[in-house]
Structure formats: C-alpha cells, structure tokens
Write a structure and sequence with these properties.
mainly beta; about 120 residues; 11 strands
Length: about 120
C-alpha cells in the first residue's frame, strides 16, 4: 500500500495550492479518504474527508468555504484544492485511507507534503 502526496510548497497569503494523493496497493474506490494536517507543536487534525463514492464530504471549520476535497477513482487519486490560504494553514498535510475488509479496518498514511504560507 502506498499513498504519495504532492503539490505542497511555499505560497503567499491569499494564494492557492492543490494537493494530490496518489494511491496504490488497495481498492481505492472502497476507501474513505481524508486529508489531515499537522503544524509544528500541534496535534494532527482533520482537514477534509470524502466518502468512497465521493457523495459525502466533511470539512473542518477552518477549511469550510476555502478548501475543496475531491477524488477520481479511475485515477486512484484524491485532491485538496486550497484557496485563500493563510499563515495558520502552514503545516504538513497528510493523506489517509480507511477501508474495511470483512469488517476489519485498514488504515494507511502518506508521508506528507509541506505547505508553507508566508509573505
């Protein structure tokens, strides 16, 4: 199983970034996918999640109205479009996959991609 995030970088306040997470090694269309982030000195927190079929999406309060999560099951990729970025959005962003096999949960994490919002 592999989750590979990309798209992070340095952006000025008010700017945008689109993160991608490419998945392999499991049935992507059976997994709920979630973006988390962890800022220095802080706990990892949920940013946005999307159900296996894409019909249900969840956002943290800080992400609502600014971030959009989406997925392409054919490309086995989940995305996070981030607009109106602010310095508080600076963090390492992680992709998470959760699926069940015979009622047994399997959860995987990517290695993370750094997002830095600074002028």
């Amino acid at each position: 199983v592999q989750l590979v995030e990309s798209g992070g970088g340095l952006v000025q306040p008010g700017g945008s970034l689109k993160l991608s997470c490419a998945a392999s090694g499991f049935t992507f269309s059976s997994a709920d996918m979630t973006w988390y982030r962890q800022a220095p000195g802080k706990e990892r927190e949920l940013v946005a999640g999307i159900s296996r079929g894409g019909g249900s999406r969840t956002y943290a309060g800080s992400a609502k109205g600014r971030f959009t999560i989406s997925r392409d099951n054919d490309k086995r990729t989940v995305y996070l479009q981030m607009n109106s970025l602010q310095p508080d959005d600076t963090a390492v962003y992680y992709c998470n996959a959760l699926y069940f096999n015979n009622a047994v949960p399997f959860q995987y994490w990517g290695q993370g991609t750094q997002v830095t919002v600074s002028s």
